[in-house]
Amino acid sequence: xxxxILSGILAAAMLIGMGTQASQSVRAADPEPIVLEKSTQGNPxxxxxxxxxxxxxxxxAILVDGDxxxxxxxxxxxxxxxxxNMPDYLCYSTRDLKEWKYEGVxxxxxxxxxxxxxxxxxxxVIKYKNKYYLLxxxxxxxxxxxxxxxxxxxxxxxxxxxxxxxxxxxxITNTETYEIQDNGATTTIAKKYGRRGSFGWEDIDPTAxxxxxxxxxxxxxxxxxxxxPWMCELDLDGNKMDIKDQDGDGQIxxxxxxxxxxxxxxxxxxxxxxxxxxxxxxxAPYLYRRQNQYGEYxxxxxxxxxxxxxxxxxxxxxxxxxxxxxxxGGKVMEPTATSDxxxxxxxxxxxxxxxxxxxxxxxxxxxxRRVICIEELIFNEDGSINYIQETSTxxxxxxxxxxxxxxxxxxxxxxxxSLQDSFYPIIGDKAKSVSLKSDAAEADxxxxxxxxxxxxxxxxxxxxxxxxxxxxxxxxxxxQNVVLAHDHNGNATAPSNGITSESKxxxxxxxxxxxxxxxxxxxLAYPGYYLTASADGSLTVSQNPEVSACTFxxxxxxxxxxxxxxxxxxxxxxxxxxxxxxxxxxxxxxxYSDGTEEIIKEGFTVDASGVDASKAGKQNLTVTYQPEGKDxxxxxxxxxxxxxxxxxxxxxxx
Length: 654
What we know:
Blueprint: E1 56-65, E2 68-76, E3 88-94, E4 101-108, E5 123-128, E6 131-140, E7 145-153, E8 161-162, E9 207-212, E10 218-226, E11 228-235, E12 242-243, E13 260-262, E14 281-291, E15 297-307, E16 312-318, E17 327-333, E18 345-349, E19 352-359, E20 371-376, E21 399-403, E22 409-412, E23 432-437, E24 447-451, E25 461-466, E26 472-476, E27 482-486, E28 508-512, E29 519-523, E30 530-533, E31 539-542, E32 553-557, E33 563-570, E34 574-576, E35 586-592, E36 597-600, E37 604-607, E38 617-625, E39 633-642
Parallel strand pairs: 34-39
Antiparallel strand pairs: 1-2, 2-3, 3-4, 5-6, 6-7, 7-8, 9-10, 10-11, 11-12, 11-13, 14-15, 15-16, 16-17, 18-19, 19-20, 21-32, 22-23, 23-27, 24-25, 25-28, 26-27, 28-29, 30-31, 33-35, 35-36, 37-38, 38-39
């Protein structure tokens, strides 16, 4: 399933060129439609059901099981307004992080006896002793608030069967006495833990980590929380699905030496995006630890989480997952331009680490109609993490720059996404300006050219999405100005085909440039009006523009896919002493930078000089693959030479 649901067919050639033409107006002669190459993969990676129709979902979690990545989400079915309607959990899968398959509903809230039917809030699936466990949170229909649940399945795609009741009463983690952390004035200390008293949705967003201790015993830890972060150990042995009773008193209680313990994040006072000076844990914890090339865990434990409102992404680390003490590492992602919440998931796959999150970048998207995106996460040598740029292109999309004949780039005004709700939605008088610039920041001048959001079957139609503000598009407004705005659809859900009230205003028809080269864009909302660079550098759509003002040039930045490593596979690896070593049974697996793989039977060399078949023991064949224009890549295949004794030399005495 490709990136943009209901997208057109991958188009033909991109027109690129520069030149200077005499200034003249568009003639009445029929312009020549052309087809631009479009980006049809990248972000978002979900947003479609089994029929390819539009479907919303948020709160991602990841399970890597063998060669398959499973993505679990909560289905957003809210038609309008600002409340959640989440009737079930959905699953997608992939083996290459490019093509994602819709696996369907894994658990319907109608089948959860203790919950209401519409609160499939954040979840995570783990695999433990060949069973799959869905840890989730939902509204207790007994009006106690959000509580945690657990369900089990023999398959990663479900169906998951709930255990029959919530794991504990939410009042256990929220008592009348609690601790209020320093808010810049005074600190109030009480008998229990927490930054806030009971408020009904503190027990949400479970995440889990399976840890083997020094004695080889596995422990399943679960963390969760809103404002107050908590952790416990689960008992999943046999048919049990419960919180482990650490002190054996027959009940689940809260405290550092009890069954549920508070997680202190040690977050320093530092400037926050809202100017409050305090960085706070909000919700959506996600546990992670790095792996080496052999799949072995090492280094610090990471907890990624949402902080503030609107939600930014941050992380904290600890040397001991059971210590209760976490050290704040920093902010890794600003709030999205299209959703008030965010939710991280971090995982390793084929030697790379990836960061999953949600936003509202699909048609009519918003905080209650979300979609899932992915970026690669890079660690610094000291284990710290740099800022992660939210992008429309993700891992596999195509970013482009659009220039005029003078080489000025179309760019949106520079702005940071605000923590203030009043900043959103970015429509109408909150829309952002777009102009031609020589000094724009690189990310502000990148665009993703996708199949037109209106009239998708017409291959000459395109929409132009901001690279670093996904979900915001070049749109022609009622004054024929071109601005950057959100496909908001008046807060109403989009139909299954994704066509909204803004679809026409963000769709353009492409023609051979009126200057004789390049490309000219006609507004679909205003036929006969063409994308035009005004004298002051601003963008409009206008009738009869000068050809130099309405001709643009596109330069695409395709992400280079290169062979990063190879693995040699050999059918026969054990030989008798003196036997000829065969090399015709070797196959080589090429592992590309985008995570895809390819098996080749030729095009590589094998150096057998390192193997002396006259000597017994373990030796190595060296296999070399030479990518075109790149450095050679080598790997080794282990060979064992056996020295079998003659029968008469065997000692048969007892």
